[in-house]
Amino acid sequence: MNRPTTPHQPAECSLQPVAGGWHCSHLYYTWDRGTLARMSAEQITAGHADVIAQLDPAGSEAPLRLQVSTVSGHKADFGLMVMDPDPLKVDRVHQRLMAGPLGPALTPGYSFVSMTEISEYVPSVEDFGRQLLAEGETEESPTFAKKVKAYEDRLVGMNRQRLTPDFPNYPNTCFYPMNKKRKVGENWFLLAKEERSAMMSEHARSGWAFAGKVSQLISVGLGFDDWEWGVTLWAANPEYLKDIVYRMRFDEASARYAQFGPFLASYVVTAEAMLEHCRIGALAGEPARGH
């Protein structure tokens, strides 16, 4: 076996992503009603307060991002989206819930572990300039330099949002994992980069039609989970979630090469409102309040 003659510098050991992104976990739970029925009123009251404290985004132990939502359907009662540079800080949210007073009444149902990233298909400033030229612009055009500079300025903010995102102020959300096909004749990973980029550019243009209505985050599960990517969508109205997913199914990147896992639709709330909605604790008689 040939060994390299040039020694490699050992990489610095760290739990934090080198590229400056964050670890991300989507976690889904169901309440065990039988266990809750056997708990005393005092236990449930203590557990109610504990859950609210553990899921407070402003709490002293909270990760940098923490969002609670109530889930439609029987797949789960509520979900969490948790993000932080430290993966152990992300996981401690789950561990504290399970170790808390209401932990025995919680059944974890689904999780997806991933990291944020800047996709290889995001056009660089140079790529954007070449795209303008291909569309008929010239470098001498008075608008060429302005368009390139405007894109360069936007790219900084867009990449920050991809790596260290703020949660949008939308009440509707859904999450689903996905893969790209490796079938004979439909193997995404055997396509040339130019082909993949062209299809992803078409996919992005479909999404642009929903600007101001839908916000999206793609996180990568490669090496972390069973699916390659996780897609989180937030929308101003639940109908927009249906519309954007339907529209994008017609893009070649989806129609020919995408494989989808389960969809979990939910509604963003506070931890207190989630408990009220799920009829847990003393405030169960009140209607749930939104975020």
By DSSP (H or I, 4+ residues per run), the number of helices equals: 9
Main sheet, how many strands, which sense, barrel? 8 strands, antiparallel, barrel
Parts with pLDDT < 50 across at least 5 consecutive residues: 283-291
CATH class group of the domain at 23-116 and 268-277: Alpha Beta
Strand order of the largest sheet: 1-3-2-11-5-9-8-4
Order of helices and strands: EHHEEHEHHEEEHEEHHEEH
Question: What's the count of strands?
Answer: 11
Q: Which structural class fits the helix and strand makeup?
A: alpha+beta
Helical fraction equals 25-40%
Question: What's this model, at a glance?
Answer:
This protein has 291 residues and is an alpha+beta fold. It has helices at residues 33-38, 41-54, 87-99, 125-134, 144-163, 193-208, 238-248, 252-255, 271-277, and strands at 23-31, 65-71, 78-84, 106-116, 172-180, 182-183, 186-187, 214-220, 229-235, 258-260, 264-269. It has an eight-stranded antiparallel beta barrel with strand order 1-3-2-11-5-9-8-4.
Summarize the structure in words.
The chain is of the alpha+beta class. It has a domain of 104 residues: Alpha-Beta Plaits (2-Layer Sandwich). It is built from 9 helices and 11 strands. Strands 1-3-2-11-5-9-8-4 form an 8-stranded antiparallel beta barrel. It has a two-stranded antiparallel sheet with strand order 6-7.
Key terms:
alpha+beta, 291 residues, 9 helices, single chain, eight-stranded antiparallel barrel, two-stranded antiparallel sheet, Alpha-Beta Plaits, disordered C terminus, 24% strand
